[in-house]
């Protein structure tokens, strides 16, 4: 019989949070399932979400946490502008708000419910699933983004708000980094993402992040970085022997 103390230890996560006003770290102990923490998201107003194999811990700006149980394991998390939380999970794309959980399938079929990544910006939601990449302006009606991602689903998504209400969707895939301008469209029709010209061959691209005018894409041995208004540059990202890059 497995020791209870070891089981509890394996399911324990100590989360370090920083309070923006005080600029001081605090330690938040959370009981996770055996999978441990699988995704973390932080909102602009200080809320925190931590996912594991069975649900999400939701933390408010004052440090209180509440548990949201789910049927599937959590793969990715993103807070939306309306204070809701989007969850990419084994059970599909979920919207959590006000204690309610709503399934938001980007397309019909089992493959579309196999959601791997989710990203938000303003009212826009993007999701990567086994059926492809989709986006929506309201989190309900989704349109497909055509992208030559390869055999595996897209491994990373980021939404970058641009000038004139344009938003750029960045997509990390086994065939490299792709992007498409959503251009404030209403979600109708099919958009096609193009591969990003980069100073190195970033194949596969494992993940992508956007914020403060910057874009960062993670590859096996290098990181692509684009400063605000600039071009991409490549930086070597040496890892310890045996280590593999996952997220950025």
Detailed description of the structure:
The chain is mainly beta. The protein has two helices and 23 strands. It has helices at about 5-10, 110-115; strands spanning about 10-20, 25-30, 40, 50, 55-60, 65-70, 75-80, 85-90, 90-95, 100-105, 115-120, 125-130, 130-135, 145, 155-160, 165-175, 175-180, 190, 195, 205-210, 215-220, 220-225, 230-235. The chain has a five-stranded mixed beta sheet with strand order 11-12-13-14-18. A hairpin with a 5-residue loop joins strand 5 (about 55-60) and strand 6. The chain is globular. The chain starts with a helix and ends in a 12-residue tail after the last strand. Mean pLDDT is about 85; it is low at about 1-10.
List the defining traits of the structure above:
248 residues; mainly beta; 4-stranded antiparallel beta sheet; 2 helices
